[in-house]
Structures are given as structure tokens and as C-alpha cells.
Amino acid sequence: MNRIGVARSVALMSALAIASVICTQPDAAHAAGARELEQDGRAALQRLYASAPAARSLSKRANGILVFPGIVKAGLVIGGQFGEGVLFKNGKVAGYYNTAGASYGLQAGAQKFGYALFFTNDGALAYLNRSEGLEIGVGPSVVVMDEGMAKQTSTTTLTQDVYGFIFSQSGLMAGLGLQGNKITKIDKK
To answer: Measured between alpha carbons, how far is residue 159 from residues 57, 59, 173, 185 in Å?
Structure first.
């Protein structure tokens, strides 16, 4: 088989892996509507706060919290991920968003997870809706908080624009991260 044939086979296998994950967990990639997405977002935040006290502390200081309760990621060399989320400002819904990303490289598997972005200033929050959305890795600085970093963080050491927490991971996938995700505002009813 030549290189084009191999590339097509890999792309087909990746598409099948993504489709199988999405079909077996339909709630992960696409919420039914605004009300359900809001409920899922609030429940996901409560799970995050229970497992990461730094997130609860940061929520009191955040200008906005964008939570994606169920992201589906799958791939085999070529991968992709997708999910929908809700932005909370002062505890109220301020908008709905989707996140999508594609990747290429050493990766294999499928995974479901959630993540929340805590915007610590109005400039970072405003950037979310400028330029057709926010691309992680471009624009405001985003710090992904792992368990060790979260334990060492206090409100006096928080100096970045956006802090991200990954939570509720299930499945098996090498290479979980947020770099390169595009977040775009959507209409939800």
C-alpha cells in the first residue's frame, strides 16, 4: 500500500473511532438543548469543586466560568474532539459555546472528559467573543491546572488570564490537552 493509501486508512479508522465513541455516548458530544446543557454544566462544576478545592476558590474570583461537561476525543494518528459548554457569569448563563480540535501525531484511543475555564479578568472574557472565538494557545494565556499545581495555588499566586481544569476523565487516550482547541459561541434553544 502506498502512502496515500495508508493515510486514507488511518483517516478512515480515526473517523470510525470518533463515530463509535459519539454513538455510544450521545450525551457527551451534543447536549439536547440549552436547559440540559445548563444543568449538565452546573453538575459538572459541582463535581469539579468536590475534587479540586482550588477550582472552588478560583470561582469566587472569576469574572466568568466556561464549562464543557462532556468532551469526546478519539483518534489514531489523526484525532479530533468536540463538545458543547455553557458560560456562567455571576452564577447566571451568559452564553453557549462549542469546542472543537483536531490533532495529528502519536496518539491512539478514545476518551470522554470535561473541562472548565476560569476567566480572571474582563479582557480575557471579552477576547472569548472577539475574532470568532478563542483558540487555546493564542490570545490570553491559559494555564491548565493539574492536581499538583492546584494544591500549591492560592488566590495570591494566581496571575494569569485563564485557568483550565480537566475533570471526569474516562476511556483510554494518550495525549490529553487543550492546546489548539477552538471555542466558538453558538445559539442554543
So the answer is: 14, 15, 31, 26
